[in-house]
Design a protein that fits this description.
The chain has about 210 residues and is mainly α. It contains eight helices and no strands.
């Protein structure tokens, strides 16, 4: 047992002598247990964290104001229809942007995003009977209201982008393309509530449903 105490004491002293106490200011770089031999310099790079000091500039700040007329990558909004949901005259666009292809892939993407971000409040059918209603959430609009059925696609896109009333903005969670995909799926939900036998064009589908 005496040897165990001695070994433990030796390990503690050795650890403190190498690593030092918490808060100790070192004059030499820390020990790198796993050095990056293949790409030296990749682990420790000359960079500045947000809101940190930087002696290179006169004001001592690392955060710099972007040069005039510069746009962050992926944030160039040269298409108001795609990014704002508006036509060239400034009104809400009636349909989706021409740059988006309305197909099954877009519809499935809209369904996926809708089920994640919209269904908890609006319900899986878009009827306003989502899970949050069971826990005291106020009246959530149904997409099958005539007002929303006739609302331009661009206005629905704008609501998703900027929020409305108690609904928050989802611009930070859904890209413009994803927002349009959700709009497409909302239209599909609305259409599903007004479908008729005449909408079924495929002969095999009609036979399966027992339609003439």
């Amino acid at each position: 047992m005496r040897n165990v105490y001695l070994v433990t004491l030796f390990v503690c002293v050795l650890g403190v002598s190498i690593l030092g106490f918490r808060g100790t200011t070192f004059t030499a770089p820390p020990i790198d247990l796993f050095p990056d031999w293949a790409f030296p310099g990749m682990e420790v790079q000359p960079k500045h964290r947000p809101q940190s000091a930087n002696a290179f500039f006169a004001d001592g700040r690392s955060d710099r104001t972007p040069p005039a007329r510069t746009v962050a990558r992926g944030m160039l909004r040269d298409d108001d229809h795609l990014h704002l949901g508006k036509s060239s005259d400034g009104t809400f666009a009636a349909k989706l942007p021409a740059s988006l292809k309305v197909d099954l892939s877009l519809l499935e993407r809209g369904q996926d995003r809708f089920q994640i971000y919209c269904a908890p409040c609006h319900g899986a059918l878009g009827d306003g009977n989502g899970m949050t209603k069971r826990y005291g959430m106020g009246a959530t609009p149904t997409f099958h209201d005539p007002r929303l059925r006739t609302m331009p696609d661009g206005e629905i896109f704008n609501t998703i982008t900027n929020g409305k009333n108690t609904m928050m903005s989802y611009a930070d969670k859904l890209s413009p393309e994803d927002r349009w995909a959700v709009v497409t799926y909302v239209r599909a939900l609305q259409r599903a509530q007004q479908g008729t036998a005449a909408d079924v064009a495929d002969a095999t589908a009609k036979k399966t449903l027992g339609l003439p």
